[in-house]
Write a structure and sequence with these properties.
167 residues, mainly alpha, Butyryl-CoA Dehydrogenase, subunit A, domain 3, 82% helix, elongated, signal
Length: 167
C-alpha cells in the first residue's frame, strides 16, 4: 500500500511540475510574440507598454491608436492654454486638432477592417505631429509641448508600423 501511495504522490508531483512548466513556456511564447510585434517598430520601448500581452497586430494597432488618441487630447488641452500670442503653439494646436480627427478616423477604419484607409489616416497623423514639431524648430523654441509632441510623433510612427503587420 505504501508503495502505491508513493507512486501516486510522485505521479502527482510530476504532473504538477509539467503543468507549471507548460504554463511558464506559454507565457514566454506570448511575451516573445509581443516583443516580436514591437521589434517591427522604430521605438520598441514606447510600443511595449501600450501592447502588453497583445499578440495580434490588429489589436496592437487598435490599442496603440486608442492610447495615442487619449495622449493627443491631453496635449491638445495643454496647447490650448498657451496658443494665444505664440504662432508655433497656435499652429501646433491646429495640427493636434487634425491629428485627433485622423486618429478617430483610423480607429473607425480598423473596426471596419479598412486597412488602406486606416494607413492613410495614420500617415496623416504622423504628418500632423511632424508639422507641429517643425513649427517649434523653425522658431527655435523648446518647451514641454514640443517634447510631448515629439513622443506622440514617435508613437504614431510605431502605430503606422504596427498597421503594416495586419493581414
Amino acid at each position: 500500500m505504501a508503495g502505491r501511495d508513493t507512486f501516486q504522490l510522485r505521479f502527482a508531483a510530476v504532473a504538477a511540475s509539467a503543468a507549471v512548466l507548460i504554463f511558464l513556456m506559454a507565457g514566454q511564447v506570448a511575451e516573445s510574440r509581443m516583443i516580436n510585434i514591437c521589434s517591427h517598430t522604430a521605438y520598441p520601448s514606447l510600443c511595449r507598454p501600450l501592447v502588453k500581452r497583445v499578440t495580434s497586430p490588429r489589436k496592437a494597432t487598435h490599442r496603440t491608436i486608442q492610447a495615442l488618441e487619449a495622449k493627443t487630447k491631453l496635449a491638445l488641452a495643454e496647447t490650448a492654454r498657451f496658443k494665444n500670442g505664440n504662432q508655433a503653439v497656435s499652429t501646433c494646436y491646429e495640427t493636434l486638432s487634425d491629428a485627433v480627427y485622423n486618429l478617430a478616423s483610423a480607429r473607425k477604419s480598423i473596426r471596419k477592417r479598412d486597412v488602406p484607409a486606416m494607413n492613410t489616416y495614420l500617415t496623416a497623423a504622423v504628418s500632423d505631429y511632424g508639422a507641429c514639431v517643425d513649427g517649434f524648430i523653425e522658431t527655435q523654441q523648446v518647451n514641454a509641448i514640443q517634447n510631448a509632441v515629439v513622443d506622440l510623433r514617435k508613437i504614431s510612427s510605431n502605430c503606422l508600423a504596427l498597421s503594416t503587420l495586419i493581414r
